[in-house]
């Protein structure tokens, strides 16, 4: 593709055509991977409902669903079309990675940040070109895409991913007031989001281990043939990141919904709907992690508190480290932490919007965490606890000497004063002015602590190491001295041997008495 573009495209349009081609290749690779998996499952299925065309329509619907497009399932028991708005985040990771790779390849050799937005726009245009035929191809099949949803969500996700990738490769464009602060806040926000989702994944995994019997029983009830069980396993793996986001929302406080009107949060199961009972969950292994009953105990709260604690700690650590490296002050560090908290809230809100959605009608019309509440909770935790923690970590990282070095220095001071006092008393008899044991070590007035050491002053531990090295050299004896050459024989310069070099002047000098 790249060779054809460079051969047939005009010279002035090579870059734009290459960017467009990179986006087109990324879309083809993403659809091709899903097509291979879908056709393999259709081939190995003992009861295929339709031909290869129907299987490809399902694959096209899954490719659109991976970008957040809402689907509609026409074949239901009640005859009423059921919406499918819950996006498997593992499928979303594939097009996001392909788009990021396309932008990185398209920007090879570029150095100016102003080129990033143009390249991102052309890569997005090439990637979105097959979207319209894919939407039209799904119409009339068992699973069709809603055109309005595809028109609204898919371009938004594509532009956000390509724009973020361009900024990551080339940096922020010139119109931004402080690109370094925005870059530091972006890194801290991504790190905090990853920490929150990782803690949520551990929380979900622990819940699945506790309910392993229920998950195994529902796994065997869904399908009998091995091909069907393999499909259920793939679906569970594709929804595993969704479970991590649900558990993260549970730990942050808002919780998630497993049915219209029900909320599962650390405070317990509330709002159970019109029937006044717990929601009836579909038989799926991943849903066995949902806690049942009232969960108002210190153990539940302590376990759920791991999510915000880890997220706030990682966000504050990255913010403080960036502030120390860039030499930012306290106000700039606090502002960076606030921006990072806002970015973390926006990112988690977007993930919650993708991880939740309708899976049907009536009870399953609402499923997953609320994106607004989840994003607000993440931003609130980051602003209330992340900002002061980032300031404290900045002060801690700005210390000049570590506590261990301070302890070693104090121990050395306690061990050396007797010898130094003897030397000073011996010199006092010669008329030299007497000095106290602590003179020259601490200034007048209040003692100088280990964190108040003057700039350029050598640490006592380093002085001790230098003295030990000097004693070792003295014990080993005098160093060998290079003896001069005999008189009358000049030292030849260190040069490689060359047969063409004229050595007659050296020979004549050596023959002289």
N- to C-terminal distance: 82 Å
Largest sheet: 3 strands, antiparallel
Give the overall average pLDDT.
75
User: pLDDT below 50 for ≥5 consecutive residues: which ranges?
Assistant: 3-12, 272-277, 419-461, 487-501
Question: What key attributes describe this structure?
Answer:
513 residues; mainly alpha; three-stranded antiparallel β-sheet; two-stranded antiparallel ribbon; 19 helices; 7 strands; globular
Detailed description of the structure:
The protein is mainly alpha-helical and 513 residues long. Helices cover 61% and strands 4% of the residues. The protein contains 19 helices and seven strands. The protein has helices at residues 2-8, 14-44, 52-65, 89-106, 115-128, 131-138, 147-170, 179-210, 212-222, 226-238, 240-252, 298-304, 306-326, 330-355, 371-397, 403-415, 417-428, 460-475, 504-511, and strands spanning 71-73, 82-84, 143-145, 256-257, 263-265, 268-270, 368-369. The strands form three sheets. A three-stranded antiparallel β-sheet has the order 2-1-3. Strands 4-7 form a two-stranded antiparallel sheet. A two-stranded antiparallel ribbon has the order 5-6. A hairpin with an 8-residue loop joins β1 and β2. It is globular, with a radius of gyration of 35 Å.
Topology:
Elements: H1 2-8, H2 14-44, H3 52-65, E1 71-73, E2 82-84, H4 89-106, H5 115-128, H6 131-138, E3 143-145, H7 147-170, H8 179-210, H9 212-222, H10 226-238, H11 240-252, E4 256-257, E5 263-265, E6 268-270, H12 298-304, H13 306-326, H14 330-355, E7 368-369, H15 371-397, H16 403-415, H17 417-428, H18 460-475, H19 504-511
Antiparallel strand pairs: 1-2, 1-3, 4-7, 5-6
Helix pairs in contact: 2-3, 2-4, 2-5, 3-6, 4-5, 4-7, 5-7, 8-11, 8-13, 8-14, 11-14, 13-14, 13-15, 14-15
């Amino acid at each position: 593709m790249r060779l054809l573009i460079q051969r047939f495209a005009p010279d002035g349009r090579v870059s734009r055509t290459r960017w467009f081609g990179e986006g087109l290749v990324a879309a083809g690779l993403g659809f091709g991977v899903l097509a291979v998996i879908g056709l393999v499952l259709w081939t190995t299925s003992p009861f295929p409902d339709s031909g290869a065309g129907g299987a490809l329509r399902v694959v096209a619907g899954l490719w659109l669903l991976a970008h957040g497009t809402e689907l509609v399932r026409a074949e239901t028991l009640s005859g009423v079309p059921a919406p499918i708005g819950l996006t498997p985040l593992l499928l979303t990771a594939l097009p996001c990675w392909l788009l990021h790779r396309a932008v990185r390849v398209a920007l090879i050799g570029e150095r100016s940040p102003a080129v990033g937005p143009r390249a991102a726009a052309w890569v997005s245009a090439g990637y979105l070109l097959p979207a319209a035929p894919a939407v039209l191809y799904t119409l009339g099949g068992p699973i069709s895409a809603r055109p309005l949803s595809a028109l609204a969500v898919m371009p938004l996700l594509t532009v956000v991913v390509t724009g973020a990738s361009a900024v990551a490769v080339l940096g922020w464009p010139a119109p931004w007031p402080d690109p370094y602060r925005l870059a530091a806040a972006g890194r801290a926000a991504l790190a905090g989001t990853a920490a929150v989702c990782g803690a949520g994944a551990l929380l979900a995994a622990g819940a699945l281990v506790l309910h392993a019997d229920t998950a195994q029983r529902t796994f065997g009830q869904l399908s009998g043939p091995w091909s069907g069980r393999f499909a259920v396993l793939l679906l569970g793996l594709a929804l595993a990141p969704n479970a991590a986001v649900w558990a993260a929302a549970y730990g942050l406080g808002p919780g998630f919904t497993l049915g219209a009107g029900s909320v599962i949060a650390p405070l317990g199961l509330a709002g159970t709907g019109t029937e006044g009972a717990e929601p009836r969950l579909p038989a799926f292994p991943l849903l066995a992690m949902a806690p049942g009953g009232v969960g108002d105990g210190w153990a539940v709260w302590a376990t759920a508190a791991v999510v915000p604690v880890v997220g706030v700690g990682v966000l504050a650590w990255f913010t403080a480290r960036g502030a120390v490296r860039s030499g930012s002050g306290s106000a700039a560090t606090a502002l960076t932490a606030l921006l990072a908290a806002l970015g973390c809230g926006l990112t988690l809100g977007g993930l919650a919007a993708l991880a939740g959605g309708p899976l049907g009608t009536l009870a399953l019309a609402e499923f997953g965490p609320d994106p607004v509440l989840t994003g607000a909770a993440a931003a609130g935790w980051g602003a209330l606890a992340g900002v002061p923690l980032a300031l404290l970590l900045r002060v801690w990282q700005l210390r000049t000497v570590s506590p261990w070095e301070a302890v070693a220095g104090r121990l050395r001071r306690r061990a050396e004063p007797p010898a130094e006092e003897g030397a000073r008393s011996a010199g006092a008899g010669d008329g030299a002015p007497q000095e106290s044991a602590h003179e020259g070590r601490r200034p007048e007035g209040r003692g100088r602590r280990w964190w108040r050491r003057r700039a350029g002053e050598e640490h006592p531990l380093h002085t001790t190491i230098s003295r030990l090295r000097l004693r070792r050299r003295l014990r080993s004896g005098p160093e060998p001295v290079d003896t001069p050459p005999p008189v009358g024989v000049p030292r030849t310069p260190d040069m490689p041997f060359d047969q063409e070099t004229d050595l007659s002047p050296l020979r004549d000098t050596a023959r002289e008495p």
